[in-house]
Amino acid sequence: MTAFKRGIPLQLLVTAAIILSMLVLAASLLFQGYRGAESAMVAAAGEAAGQLGVTVNERIRRLLDPAEGALRLLSFDSISHTDNLPARLERLPMLVENLRANPTLGAVYIGYPNGEFLLVRALREAVVLARLNAPDKTAYLVQSLTLDPQGALLGEWRFYDRDLRLLQRQERPDYRFDPRQRPWYQQASASDQTVLTQPYVFFTTREIGLTLAHRSVDGAAVIGMDASVNDLGEEMNDLRQTPHTELAVVDGKNTVIAYPDLKRVLIQQGEDVRLASLDELGVASLSQLAALNAPAGVPHPYSVDGRAWYGISVPLLKLASNQARVLISIPASELLAGARRMLLQQALWSGALLLLLLGLGWLLGRRIARPLSALTEQVGALAAFDFSRPLGVNSRIVEVRELSRVLGRMSRTILNFQAITLTLSRETRLDSMLAGVLSRLVEATAVQGGAVYLLDEEERRLNLACLENGEHYPPSLPIDGIEQSQLSQLLDQALDRDGHYMEVALRNRSDELLGILVLQLPEEGERRRTPRQPFKRFVEELSGAAAVAIETRQLIEAQQRLLDAIIKLLADAIDAKSPYTGGHCERVPQLADMLLQQAIDARQGQYADFTMSDAERYEFQIAAWLHDCGKITSPEYVVDKATKLETLYNRLHEVRMRFEVLWRDAEIDYWRGRAEGGEEGALAYRRDAEQRALLDDFAFVAQANVGGEFMQDEDIERLRHIGERRWWRHFDDRLGLSQDETERLAGTPPARLPAEERLLADKAAHRVPWGERKPPVEKGDPRNRWGFDMRLPPCASNQGELYNLSIRRGTLTEEERFKINEHIVQTLIMLSALPLPRHLRRVPTIAANHHEKMDGSGYPRHLPGEAMSIPERVMAIADIFEALTAADRPYKAPKSLSESLKILAFMARDRHVDADLFRLFVQSGVYRDYGRRFLRPEQLDEVNEKAILALLDEPLRA
Q: Are residue 178 and residue 200 in the same domain, yes or no?
């Protein structure tokens, strides 16, 4: 009794609770399980019945639809307006083919307004053949009624074999049948739709079926067909859900149309046979179900002679004037047999489990009761940050309440410690890491609030980095001239004196001050709470880990700032390398980032699911700044080439000097002729004509050098003609040359002076071979490990004068254009050689794929659109749009917004750039925002966005 006065023994409490809970649970589960299984089985029966209705409807549809289709086709046939039997018999193959195509059709017939009648019946059963006394091999019977010249009806029966050979012809004067009096004829004559009769027993074949009839298109006759539904009853036999399930198809008058036992459906009355009624069928469960008028498709319980049944009525849609239905009666004992077996099994398992848990509960109660008392004290010390005490003592149940409180506190503390550790190890941003650690630390230590101050070494002050639960912390504390031992006094003076604070210095691995952690301790009553030594030690240890994390993140941020500065420095150096492309490496990243942001912000359409993490966004920005870093290898004289003869200077001056020589040669020839006694007028005329020709030829060469217009074949031919003119060189052209020039002339013997030279020449020395500098861009090059697929020009450069002047468009030769395009090759090679960290691994591909095209015709790797990511496609659009609108190119005028967008629209239509991204580029207005920031006012013209986007739907150019 003493033990019970202190509390209830845990062993007894646990055992009793387990037994009682298991009893209640087992009873509830058994009851709910049985009710659930019963409901599920009844519902499944209803669903199965509905499916059965669908199946029967489908089988009826397969029975009637082909017949109805054939009937509609026959309504267009010429047999409807034939007026004699021979003409009708000519259409016999067509009628027989309908019977062959659909085995369920028993006969096809035509009734005429004058009382004539023609019927073709398929004789498939031996009983029917015997009843009709048909000849051997008979397959079809043709019954006809035709008017003779006196207006009397003549009846004939004709028997045919399968090949429609006439086997026998019988005149039947007693064959009397007026189709006009039949319901199918009357109903079809009054309607332009196919009519369907009620099911009945066919007189000739004793089959259950129905008649379909349709008026001919010209209204001259009515065509009918007999369709058998005998097979429907046999097929229903396979649809029983249980062995004693009863099924029947009845019409609106409860006449049985189909039942698995066909003999019970047919009632013999003398020579006639009719369909049985539901009561005559002799199935009490179906008769009772028909009298209930239960809702269609819903299982309904009822009783027949003390036996429980579930009945379901399912309507049929296309039989017996839409009033037919399937009646299904299922014995409840068979339907719920599975539920009862499951109830018995669950009861047995529950009993066995209850006995097992009874013993387990008794043992468990004894084992739980022993350690709880001592464990409460130990866990209390653990919650107070004392991890040194061992665990493993006995306890009593009265200690459970204290244990619950302590365990709750301990679990929260451990949870916060885990969160602190996770934040220190995973959070990359310094401000987020400090805020997360401080918030968890305040919650774990149950202090009132806290703050973190970080040291600014340049300004010699502590700046508030984050705070938790407080607004009275000063934003900064100057520490210039203050010793580190005086920091506590400084904080006491700066902070609220009504509170009580604990300050912990944050130091790096070199014991240098990084900042200070401040915790505001709670008060207990009127006395301020003094932190215990374990708490102080824990906070100091945690502050050490936080200091290391702070130092690491400050180093990472400093390295990232340094990396960003170096990358921008490289981009600025590339822009500064040429006065004509300055700003390109700066503008493209900004434009690309603007378009990429629109794709990220999209909430519907093509890019609704497109997202990027901060790391992926930073990776893209790095790639955008470095997208043209390979241009550092591109010669300025090629990038800035404004005329065709320009290298490091415009070589047109050399050509002009040769024209000057020829000019003076004309003058010399004139004076030489005068000195030799020539006629002055003729000599002057020749000189002036020569000089005029020189002026005209030079003007043509100079104009061709500009490269402003497309060079025609006749222009190139004229250049060659001009180049054939000769002038005399008197000086050695091998003096003062570089080593490379000397090597290129090594294979050419020197000419004797004076040497005759062409006015415009393509010399061997003008062609600079690749040598060891041949780039690995060809597909089969073993050095090509980047997947380049570019055509390599035959030489590194060709400075031939005629070769350059004959450039048809622009100012660049094939070799120079390759040299410019090679910058993207060098970009990929240079960036791939960098030891990039994992989060920057895609920088080379993003940077180097902005000249690829969606159709795979771009360079340097001929990548198709599906091989490029969305950021790579964004880069392509940004690079092209910046180049089109740039005002610092020597070889073209800047284009307006509308001109640039039109060009881009054609490129999107031709699958050179991504059409969806271009549509987003236009609809989001990125081009306008970019234009306001970077373009000249005269370029900001009005843009018809609908007209621009309509270009995307035009057919592709050939």
A: yes
Question: Do 835 and 941 lie in a common domain?
Answer: yes
pLDDT tens digits, one per residue of 153-190: 888 989 999 888 988 888 888 888 888 888 888 888 88
CB atoms within 10 A of CB 661: 16
Number of H helices, E strands in the chain: 31, 27
Residues 395 and 406 sit within 8 Å (Cβ to Cβ): no
- In whole angstroms, give the CA distance from residue 160 to residue 96: 11
661, 634: one domain:
no
Q: DSSP states of 735-774 as a string?
A: TT--HHHHHHTTTSPPPPSSEEEESS---GGGEE--GGG-
601 shares its domain with 669: no
pTM to 2 decimal places: 0.52
CA distance 542 to 534: 12
Claim to verify: residue 683 and residue 765 sit in the same structural domain: yes
What is the per-residue pLDDT across 922-940, written as a single tens digit (0 to 9) for each?
A: 999 998 998 888 888 888 8
For 648, the token pair is 């490091």
Report the amino acid identity of residue 380: G
Would you give the end-to-end CA distance of the chain in angstroms? Answer: 104
Structural domain harbouring 180: 75-228
CATH number of residue 536's parent domain: 3.30.450.40
Instruction: Give the pLDDT confidence of 532-591 residue by residue, as tens digits.
Output: 667 777 777 767 767 777 777 777 777 777 777 777 777 676 666 665 565 777 788 888
Beta bridge partners of 462: 455, 477
Q: Which of 227, 200, 210, 222 is CA-nearest to residue 122? A: 227
Residue with the two structure tokens 């359409």: 605
* SS3 call for 276: coil
Domains identified in the chain, total number = 5
Phi, psi of 957 (to 5 degrees): -75, 145
Three-state secondary structure call for residue 728: strand
Confidence of residue 485 (pLDDT cuts 50, 70, 90): low
Q: Is 538 in the same domain as 583?
A: no
Decide: helix, strand or coil at residue 323.
Answer: coil
- Which CATH number characterizes residue 596's domain? 1.10.3210.10
DSSP structure string for 635-703: -HHHHT--STTBSSSBTHHHHHHHHHHHHHHHHHHHHHHHHTT--HHHHHHHHHHHHHHHHHHHHHHHH
Quick check: 900 and 884 in contact, CB under 8 A? yes
Look-up: residue for tokens 């190119």? 889
The verdict on 491 and 552 lying in the same domain is yes
CA dihedral 129, 135, 137, 142 (to 10 degrees): -70
Query: Residue 869 carries which side chain, given as an amino acid letter?
Result: S
Element (DSSP H or E) covering residue 120: strand 117-122
Instruction: Give the chain's length.
Output: 958
Query: By the 8 A CB rule, do 106 and 205 touch?
Result: yes
Torsion of CA 489, 494, 500, 504, to 10 degrees: -60
Give the three-state DSSP class for 826. Answer: helix
